[in-house]
Every structure is written in C-alpha cells, then in structure tokens.
Amino acid sequence: MSKTSRPTNQPEIRAIIFDIGRVIIALDPRRAIDAIGAGSALAPDKLWAAVQNDPLWMGWQEGRVTPREWYENLIARFHTPISFDEFCNAWNSVLVPKLILPESLFKQLSKKCRLVLLSNTDPIHVRCIESKFPFVRYFPKRIYSCEVGASKPGPKIFRAAIKAAGVPAKQILFIDDVRENVMAARRVGLRALQFRSRRRLEADLRRLRLLP
Fold first, then answer.
1. Whether this model's pTM surpasses 0.70
2. Rounded to an integer, what distance in angstroms lies between the CA atom of residue 58 and that of residue 26?
3. How far is residue 82's CA from residue 110's CA, in Å, rounded to a whole number?
4. Three-state helix/strand/coil letters over the chain
C-alpha cells in the first residue's frame, strides 16, 4: 500500500470534527488569572486549578450557570473587585489570538469534507470565538458544550456532533488534544486522532488522503 492510499477496509472520510482549545486556539490561563486572581494569595497555576475544580465549573461549561453568576462566584471567591466587563475581557484573554493551525488548512479541508467544531466551552468564550476568530467561517456547524448541555467525554455531545456532521460516524474523523476524549470518540464509532503538533496532524491528513 502506498503512503498516500487509504487504509484497507476504511471508508472514505466525509467530515472532520475539530476540538478548539490547544488544537486550533492556544490557551494561556495565566493571562486571565493575573486579573481575576489578583486578590488571591495562591500561585497562578494553583489558581487556575482552583477555577477548574470550582463547584460551578461543570454547570458553567454545560450552560447551567450564567456569565453573571460565574463572574459573581469567582469575584467573591478570589476577592477581586473588578467589573463584569473587565472580568469578561480578562476571561477571554485566555484565548491566544495567533492560531495553532492556519486558516489555509481549513480552507483546503473544507473543499473535501464537512467541518464541525466541538468544544467544551462557556458562553463568554463562545461570543469571543464567534466574533474575533475568522476561521469559524469554514465550520458550518459548531457544537459548544454550553449550548447542548453536555461536555466531552460524555457521549451526548458526540452524538450532537455526529448529527451536525450529517454522515455516519465511521466516515467522520475527530481531532482532539486530550486522550480521554479521543478514546470516548472511538467508543461512539468515530475515527479519532490525538493532536500533538501541526506537522504530525498534516502528515496524518495526507495519509488519509485529505491533503495533497
């Protein structure tokens, strides 16, 4: 079998589902913590861990906690007197403007496959991504945990993404940086790759005949 031929007995890939954070957009939590945790004595890495372990975190990611409730919760917890607008700006500063994967890649892939975004994320980040990151125009369907009320690695959010892709799971490639999510995707029938670098991903896409 040549290096560019499709693996034996594997159906053609007709859709690709991409994770966003640490796959397309780099994340730098310290940028937010410097502002949000200014009143805390905890070190930045411990602050971000505390945020992710907050009792409201899962509800925040799955749309059961409003932006205002999340703001009030963290400001009270870390004793930081900033306004809601300042909080939103700080929260969005986690999203690094320079992309990990270039828009040109999505432009190429969109000519061969339907592209879908699938992300565990919150309403504040969704608004920022939709308004400030032009790459989303290549993704006609975007599945956000806060909008579907479920998050990875649970099967519900994967089923929503499969439905959005509009093709059978076995014809969909899923790309995520978290191994647990990759394994969960495979359990629902998706073909899945763990993202490690742009170079490695592009090599995998060429092997699957999705790039020249």
1. yes
2. 21
3. 42
4. CCCCCCCCCCCCCCEEEECCECCCEEECHHHHHHHHCCCCCCCHHHHHHHHHCCCCHHHHHCCCCCHHHHHHHHHHHHCCCCCHHHHHHHHHCCEEEEECCCHHHHHHHHCCCEEEEEECCCHHHHHHHHHHCHHHHHCCEEEEHHHHCCCCCCHHHHHHHHHHHCCCHHHEEEEECCHHHHHHHHHCCCEEEECCCHHHHHHHHHHCCCCC
Domain 15-26+100-207 CATH class label: alpha beta
Q: Report pLDDT digits (tens) over 46-103.
A: 888 999 999 999 999 999 999 999 999 999 998 888 999 999 999 999 999 999 999 9
Compute the residue count for the chain: 212
Q: May I ask the CATH class of domain 29-93?
A: mainly alpha
| Intervals of CATH 3.40.50.1000 along the chain | 15-26+100-207
Give the separation between CA 31 and CA 119, rounded to whole angstroms: 20
Residues of the chain with CATH 1.10.150: 29-93
> Distance (Å, rounded) from C-alpha 10 to C-alpha 210?
14
Name the region of 33 (left: φ>0; alpha: ψ -120 to 50; beta: rest): alpha
Instruction: Give pLDDT tens digits for 125-163.
Output: 999 999 999 999 999 999 999 999 999 999 999 999 999
